[in-house]
TrEMBL record:
InterPro entries: DUF2188
Basic and acidic residues bias locations: 53-63
UniProt region (Disordered), positions on chain: 53-74
Protein's name according to its UniProt entry: DUF2188 domain-containing protein
Length: 74
């Protein structure tokens, strides 16, 4: 079973990693790159996805670390 997707979101004081459905941040960082690194580590462990949000709050990138079918269904 796959774990929770991890979102990298902007906060007033930096960037945060937030598990899907959670009310509280998993962790906060000064830079987006640090938050992405941590979210990626969690997603790999949980075989889930990282959704990276831009400054405007919209998803700008997503990376999957789960059990994806290959080749992808088209």
């Amino acid at each position: 079973m796959a774990g929770k997707n991890q979102h990298v979101v902007r906060r007033e004081d930096g960037w945060a990693v937030l598990g899907a459905g959670n009310n509280r941040d998993t962790a906060r960082y000064g830079t987006q790159a640090e938050a992405i690194d941590r979210a990626t580590e969690i997603a790999r462990n949980q075989q889930s996805e990282v959704l990276i949000h831009g400054r405007d709050g919209r998803i700008r990138e997503r990376n999957s670390y789960g059990n994806d079918p290959f080749p992808p269904r088209g």
